[in-house]
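One-letter codes give the sequence; the integers encode the fold. A sample entry reads:
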Amino acid sequence: MSAVVSSCRVYEIFLSLQGESTTQGYPTVFVRLSGCPLRCVWCDTAYAFSGGRRMALAEILSTVAAYKIPHVTVTGGEPLAQKHCGELLSQLCDAGYKVSLETSGALDIAAVDRRVQVVMDLKAPGSGEVAGNRMSNIHWLSLGDQIKFVLSNRTDYEWACEQLTDHQLAERCGLLFSPVWGELAPEQLAAWILEDRLPVRMQLQLHKLLWGDVPGT
């Protein structure tokens, strides 16, 4: 009997600049896995909800290695929806890469390799998926990790401020506030952050500023 080969369904693997988080601007290899259990109304990667092809983990690592880049981000969709995502993350760490995981926060992150930088969303009401937040995930975050709030209006902003206070998030990990592309004016979000003296990093999606809303960039 042949051994079962671990694999993931991969929508795309590509080289770009990291558009978000504290590694923004670094050349990064993105491994985008297919599928997601959420349907955020502002989602910009809905094209990855289906499709892609199944790749053995060894093939994924070989494809990543060909780019000769130290930063690797595993993203989606929702990568943790795939059974062998955790194994992929650990193998990338074992290979010496600086690995980050972009996750919706709806699935359990407890088993994610602690060498991985977790960039986890908390979904605000405007996403339509606030009920999907798995708040117990906050326990597993450390100072090297980050929580991302994508905000579409003042209600989202005030909700995010409540989470900072209620869960003492600034003491646990990095915090990122982003405006929904085309909905909340960046200068408005900046004004709110400054007025309230929030301990957060405001970020704009660098890849969209450079290339627009184009998949695979």
Observations:
- Strands lie at 7-17, 27-33, 53-56, 71-75, 98-103, 117-121, 146-151, 174-179, 201-202.
- The two ends are 42 Å apart (CA to CA).
- The chain has a mean pLDDT of 94.
